[in-house]
Amino acid sequence: MIFKFSTQNHILNIGRLVSTFVKLNM
To answer: What domain of life is recorded for the organism (predicted)?
Structure first.
């Protein structure tokens, strides 16, 4: 369960990085 939560959190962090990168490109 802890590992699953950690993976989900990691995916959310990647999503934030991608959205920030897109904003910088715009």
So the answer is: Eukaryota
Q: How many CA atoms lie within 13 A of 23 on its CB side?
A: 6
Global pTM reads 0.52
What is the rounded CA–CA span in Å between residue 15 and residue 7?
Answer: 12
Q: Which amino acid is at 15?
A: G
Which amino acid is present at 26? M
